[in-house]
Amino acid sequence: MTGGSLRRTLTTVTSGSTGPTPADDSVPRSPAESHRRTGWLAWVATPLVVLLVGGALDAVDQSAPEVAGGYAARYVPPDGHRSVSIDLTGATTVAEASRTVGVEGVLAAPTTVAAGLLAEAGVDEIAQAQWWRSSYVNDRGERGSDLFQLSDEGVTQVASWGGSVGFVFDPPLVLLPATVQPGDTWSSTGDALPGGGLTYSSTATARPVEGPFTDPDGREIPLTGGCIGSESEVVIANADASLSTTVARSAVWCPGRAVVWSSGTIDGEPIGTFELRPEVLDIAPTDAAPTSRWSAMLDDASRLLPGRTLPFQTTDPFFGESEISGRYPIPASATADGRLVTVNDQGDDVQVWNLDRTDASLAWLGHPGGTVVSVGVVGDRVVAGTAQRRVVAYDRDGRRVWSWGADELVLAPPVVAGDAAAAGGGAGADDVIVAARSGTVTRLDAARGTPRWSQSLGADARSPVVVASGRAVVADERDRLTALDVATGSIVWQSEVGIVARMTADAESGVVVAVLQSGSLVALDLQSGDEVWRAPMPGIPIDLIVVADRVVAMADDATVAFDSQTGRVAWRADSGVGLVGDSTSSVVTLVRDRSVELRSSQSGDLIDEQLIEAAAASASVSVLAVGDALVILESNGVLRRWELRDARVGQ
Amino acid sequence: MKPIARVGEGLVRFWRGLIVTPIRHGRLRDTGWPSGLRPVVVVGIVAFCLGVVIIVAAGAIRAISPVSASVGESVLSLPRLMLPTIFWLVIVSLGLMQTAALHTRRRTAVVLTFMTSLIVLFIGSLDLGTDDAGGAAVTPGKAVSVIAVLALIAIVVLRRRSTFAWWEFPLVVAVIGVSSVLSLGRSAAQSAPYGIDFGPSSASLVMSTLGQLAVPAALAAGVAVAEFAIVAAMSAVAAVHRPSADGGQPLARRAIPVVLVVVFVLVAGWRIVEVVIGMAAEFGPEITLTHIPLSVGIVAAMIGLWVLIGRVRRSRVVVADDVLAQSDPVMLPIAAALSITLAPLVITLLIVQILSAWGGEGPVVDALRALADLVRGTAALVIVRSVVGVALIVLALVVARRGTRGLPELFAVVGLVTLVSVLPMVLTEAPLWSQSALASVIALGTLVLAGVLAVRRVLTARRLALLTVALLLSAAVVWRELLSDPVSVIIGAGGVALVLFGFVWGFVTDADVTHGESAAYPRASRVMLFLANAVFGITVLAFGALARDIGAGINLDGFAQFGDELLGTALILAVVGAVWSSALAPDSADSRPAAPSVAP
Q1: How far apart are the first and last CA of chain B?
Q2: Chain A contact present for B310, CB below 8 A
Q3: A494 interfaces chain B, CB cutoff of 8 Å
């Protein structure tokens, strides 16, 4: 179609049936008239088409499926919801809700459970299933998880694990039908374990709730948003019904909070749970029993044992061991008591692992809600930053102690405020310092998560934040380094050094050292911000640490040690993937592609070396000291661990 | 005229010279546009302004909308609701480019249509799908993208010999839009039920692949700050030197030399103090002594090249306006030449993505990936910069032989600085230079020149004004980034601010190219290419601003910094050279420096 004919067609269409016919072309039309008509069309059609494309793009955009489960879904807590309850024995239980879609929902379950679910429902159905997982831990250290599905049936329980007995319900046990209303009754029967080892039968009725409902101490539990009651009886029996357990329970479900009150019996024994609504769990920070520290154990006589590759696994008391595989894209951390902290493959669970010589076993997992974008260890707390702009703290047992809302994502791992004196007194040495991407730096009370102070940098903050000698130093996107007084949050100095790629600080030598994107290494006085020295960086920065009186910088071309006071080059070595060391040690651990090296921080002389059986295949590698061991975690899930020869003999 | 009024008039002249005149001459304006182009221009301007608003309001947008985060080597977080807008901006810029291609000369039309086709196929390939065996399947998204490409080629064939028609742009946008909407919609519909949010990852893929095409614009944007600084310096001195259009009263005319001396002494004092302090490295820009030799070498080489150009042209005199007037038309092509490897890189990446989506894994794809790695490697960078540097110097002599002023000098200096930028890549112990060292050399050179002229008793008001400009330009070498600081205060990121400043200033002052017309590039095509470039650049930057990470798609900041350091510094150096040259030239009847004119 030519332009002329298309123009005619459009003119015809827009002017209706009485418009010009092709024969009309022979009729002379004044240029002004033609121009007006074309102009009018152009002004309408051009923006209209462009807007239609925009509207269509908006219309077809989908980020998540519609929530399944019908009316009953409103009672399911949102992702990341934390609930606290107390039972008749006085035990306090902390539970976290995880809402997922697809295979991810069953991957947190023991392998036996996940395999059973996949076999029963099929991969296609599981891949589109919507899940609610409730993971709980009580103050006796008992922990477990319940897995629920939101489907056309309503809210159903699929599996339960972590306790001395576990279940896999087939078909799932209906807790609330999709159209639940007071007066409805429903029932379900089926297997409670794969293969019919246990069976279940359940009957239930929905009731209107008429409070008040109170906890054992007489405090009234608020009923908000249209709660509903249920009375149910579940009988679980073995195959020949020679053994059975009957659970009779009345429960109150409230929107977004799940069961807030329940009371009943198990084989006649009274049971009950009652929601508490504390903002903060009253769990004071404790001294995290420190294990031997890798760097502190190193000296010129240290010798390495061959490294081991450790599998990740979890052990369920009922379902047994399960091997876990996945990727670990977020840089790992280590707790003071020698445990490894990672974020799972999907980026939504914080995992804490006990490491020994043979494997890494899951100690606990936390689900702060949304994607975890950073994780760090502050005192005995594991602190995570999430895509929901929250900073969430867990105690050493995995109980979520508090959560605080930042004004932006906290991409830099949260750090500890520092020693008590520097932090402004005896209290608060374990406080958490976080820098939101917006440039707001905040010191949070470690016990309650409330801000002690907040300071704006006036520019977007860059990772990481470093703390030493009572100064929290933060880089920003306007080329500046800012030192804040840890005690008050006031700005002590600001220096325009350029865009910082990496940074470290050391109280002993009194300097903060930054690698700049421009390719320089600059050391500033921690107290005054004065430039102490500047040196060229040997290539693209990989890692930067301070060991004794050396600043060791690893780049893709080389590893170079500088005198921390003068910036003079002390020694050079080949490049690698990471460095470990601190100011208390005279030995730097240098991890290269195919070897782990111990080198004297003074001279750079090689003290010992062990080969790595296979070079790292991952895009990113975490190199860190975990307790008395050196750990390398590749983002593809390969975990390697090294010990010192003396340490093993000593044990 | 009262002194206050005189000062006011000077300020008005300064404002006009700095802001009004460049915009008046360089803005997009109807210079005989064909019928129906105005709505297209309005769409382009609205899209550009929307991009600017998104960038400035990115923090607020993130604060009020849910943020979707994906974790990989780095964290990509985006306000999820804005992703369709980003895709829309990409489609609008693509539509502008392809519509412009319809009436350009054949080889340009072929290149642009090829690029558009690859992008359409690439977006179509996002509708992945697998067959029963798990292999790549032909999906509706892929099939429609092929049909869309055939339709675009048909439109080019049918419309190439015609003049611009208003319906071409909506038609092209509709073709690209239908294909893109179908592919993106199907991808989202297929992945959402599985709990996978397709949007952020696909947006990231699109931006990191196509974002390279915004590099020339980012490099040129980096020059904007230098250009602005030069115009500011020249306008400021012109405002003092030419306080009123009629020359003012006799008394006022007599006061001008006194004012100039005072201004010169003040500026010279500032520069001397800064150089001294910089050497002591306690405050302000630090001057490393080891950077001085190469900085002196650069200035000396520039003078040498200019002498050579003068001999070839048989005239050494060149004025700053000659250089400045030539910078707008040539900076973008030079930036494109410096990033010449990016076009084949993008093409290779697009072909790899398309082939992979269509099940074409194998040696061809592996070879293409290896080629992409080669093209973006350091060796390729060294070769490109060396060739461009040498070519510019040769071109300078060729153009000088034709008697052109300004352009040869500019080519020579840009070529020289480009070659110097290669040194650290090829020499392990390469000599270094820095902006602060170069600034001090320029300042000291200017003061020496002033001293020589004063001793010879030829330091006239005209020369004093010119040397004041040179001193201010030496300050601009190190301080020019401050110009984008007010924007960075609002945005919170200096990198985004620098690029935004460059993009916006370029948008309102660099449209001179659209004022002309030729058979190869008719007016409508020029206008739409200008808009396509502007909208696409601002879209890539908006994506980075929304992610609160300028490197989310491609690090435009890095390229803008490079453009600023290389092209911006070269431009300032060239203008300084021209100012020195003018100062050494004999006085004419009225050769006082005027506010710069950027009119062609």
Answers
A1: 34
A2: no
A3: no
